[in-house]
Design goal:
Layout: E1 4-12, E2 16-18, H1 37-40, H2 43-48, H3 58-63, E3 70-76, H4 77-80, E4 104-108, E5 116-117, E6 123-127, H5 131-141, E7 146-149, H6 153-161, E8 167-173, E9 181-182, E10 194-200, E11 206-212
Parallel strand pairs: 1-7, 1-8, 3-4, 3-7, 4-6
Antiparallel strand pairs: 2-9, 5-6, 8-11, 10-11
């Protein structure tokens, strides 16, 4: 069976994956872009942005694991758009006409709408389903490849609580946010189901990888 994977998911030292006060103008609230500066510095990011340069160390190695072997993505409504996006029939996500997913992408929302085909192979499907049912649907669309659980924190936490995540990559960024949406709440003892490894890089972040051992 294909795996359910999480990649490049950044949290603060106090466990917040996004800040408070999310809006169309502030997708990560008061956190701004501080959780993702490590990624913006990599060669991978520079290549995707059409720029030269960027770092080529461990951060770059980790971030490049985002795409290979992925056949579908699941994300929450909060990743797809700002609070209230469902009231805007013209909203097509944050990423412009060619989103970076290039696969069927399932948006978990109570406000369903018809599928939305974008450039580059991404089609957004709006699904009102439990984590288990959403994963079953995404696996059917993934053509035997793995399914990426893209976030946000609430969605990943629900999939972890249901023991549906096979590979989890969390990046701990050395900032303190103090408020927002936390990842780890309610997941006491999660580590018992996983082999956990850590890598700290010169950028100051720590990459945590969880590989599921109990099924």
């Amino acid at each position: 069976m294909s795996l359910a994977r999480v990649h490049n998911f950044s949290v603060s030292l106090d466990g917040f994956a996004t800040g408070e006060g999310l809006s169309r103008e502030a997708p990560f609230g008061h956190a701004g872009e501080r959780l993702h500066q490590w990624m913006f510095a990599t060669r991978w990011w520079h290549e995707r942005s059409g720029d030269a340069g960027g770092t080529s160390g461990a951060d770059d190695v980790f971030v490049r694991r985002f795409e290979p072997g992925i056949g579908a993505e699941i994300m929450g409504a909060g990743k797809y758009g700002y609070p209230g996006w469902h009231e805007d029939p013209e909203w097509k996500g944050w990423w412009g006409p060619n989103p970076p997913f290039h696969t069927p992408t399932f948006v978990l929302t109570r406000h369903t709408r018809p599928p939305l085909a974008m450039e580059g192979g991404t089609t957004f499907h709006f699904l009102d389903a439990s984590p288990a049912d959403a994963l079953k649907t995404a696996r059917a669309a993934a053509g035997g490849k793995d399914v990426r659980i893209g976030g946000g924190a609430t969605v990943i936490r629900e999939f972890l609580a249901a023991r549906l995540i096979d590979h989890l990559h969390v990046v701990v960024v050395p900032i303190v946010l103090g408020r927002g949406v936390r990842l780890w709440d309610g997941l006491e003892g999660l580590e018992r189901d996983y082999a956990v490894d850590t890598v700290t890089t010169s950028s100051g972040v720590t990459h945590l990888t969880f590989e599921r051992t109990a099924r």
